[in-house]
Amino acid sequence: MKAYKFRLYPSKKQEQTLFQTFKSCRFVYNQLLEKLNKQTKINRGEIQHSILKLKKEFPELNGVYSKTLQYECYRLFNNLRGLSQLKKNGRKVGKLRFKGRDWFKTINYNQSGFKLRQTGNRFGKLSLSKIGEIDIRCHRVTDGKIKQVTIKKTAGKWYAIMITDEEYKKVGGEGVTGIDLGIINFIADDKGNKVKSPLFLKKSLNKIKKAHQNLSKKKRGSNNRYKAKQRLGVLFERVENQRNDFLHKVSTKLVSENKVICVEKLGIKQMMSKERNRFWNRRNFADVSWGKFVSMLKFKAESAGTKIIEVNPRNTSKKCSNCGELQSMPLSQRTYFCDCGLKLDRDVNSAKNILAQGLGFVENETESSSMKQEAITSTLTSVRS
Ligand SMILES: [Zn+2]
How far apart, in whole angstroms, are the C-alpha atoms of residue 9 and residue 16? Predict the structure, then answer.
């Protein structure tokens, strides 16, 4: 199933109602948890039923769509299941905790109580029962039926996450390519196309560093510390969003253009890139992004029918893609010069080697499987005779 995340723009009044709904849902969750803790034998039906009693006792709960309140029972048992799963895996776990203000971040509309209406190319209205019609920015129109809407507030912004019954369907392209992952060029391919590493990350990383220093100066428990923490959270969220957008764009384009993509196997590359890391001092960022990028690529490739081939990155930057000669290539050397006459961007040279190695691997693979087939046939013949 496909999920969409859209920005919401509630009015001041709608925002008040949303806050009240969050408060009510959190209250119900905690009340249900208290009931659960008192039960000697877990009885889900009884807990579910107690929502009705709570509504009588606290009439303000009637301001919340009934299924949204009921969802809290589902959430509680879902958390409980998660906890017992951890226990099964041998982890030492405590009890479920009551949710404080900062730990309650979403409310849910499941199956009903919502309606999405497109009013323009990029805008629409999302009606939520008991809250009203909220302005929404929907940059993509969903084809499928919306099954669930989750409302979330993070870093001062409201979002609606919609889960639809659409399936991922994308068709891969016809190209065959090798790509090199790097720090200056995020990717470079064997045809000489390059995507530069985005600069916004460097800017944001500096801001995060400052926000961190700022936070460490604030007194524990003070209001200023709380504010500094919030600010840091906003920055992290922004970097995360920017990075994900970037990785999605690059991976989608690659899959839509190619039927075979050869890429370096990451674990080995990361170990080998210690020199690079010292040089650039941005280790964590690059590691996380490459890993995320390759998993996005694999995920998208699978539904598109594109093949991803991972190759050993050993010597891919040192080898001449024209004659196979090896030479040392310090990172500062951006162009590969070879006695055979080759003069090529170092990343593009690597990408060519990665492609060649990947395609060689495909050939070997088919060769060995046909050899196996032969072996099986000959065994069968010898058994028969
Ligand atoms: Zn050469």
Answer: 13
